[in-house]
Amino acid sequence: xxxxxxxxxxxxxxxxxxxxxxxxxxxxxxxxxxxxxxxxxxxxxxxxxxxxxxxxxxxxxxxxxxxxxxxxxxxxxxxxxxxxxxxxxxxxxxxxxxxxxxxxxxxxxxxxxxxxxx
Length: 118
Description:
- Keywords: Membrane, Transmembrane, Transmembrane helix.
- This protein is 39% helix and 17% strand.
- It is α+β, with helices and mostly antiparallel strands and 118 residues long.
- The protein has 2 domains: 68 residues, no CATH class; 50 residues.
- It is built from 1 helix and 2 strands, in the order ββα.
């Protein structure tokens, strides 16, 4: 692939005669494009059962945009608030575990007191 995406080469493997299928190709953006998008090219080369090599070229439009951050302070604040949410979650879990342990210990002590009375 050429243009705004990284050039890659992928080996698909053997495809049975008369069969069809589809493939997914993943690549990385290497540059941003204009709003209309740059034309990129995909080149497929294959051999038929007689060993004859055939090349097919196709073009497609790819638009690569950089992220737009309107308010960087707001983004920083949102990461801080998500950190606080995680901290509050951990604290809540610790409190629940502590309460469970306290209840289990009290139950065990009561049971022991009852058995000691007999």
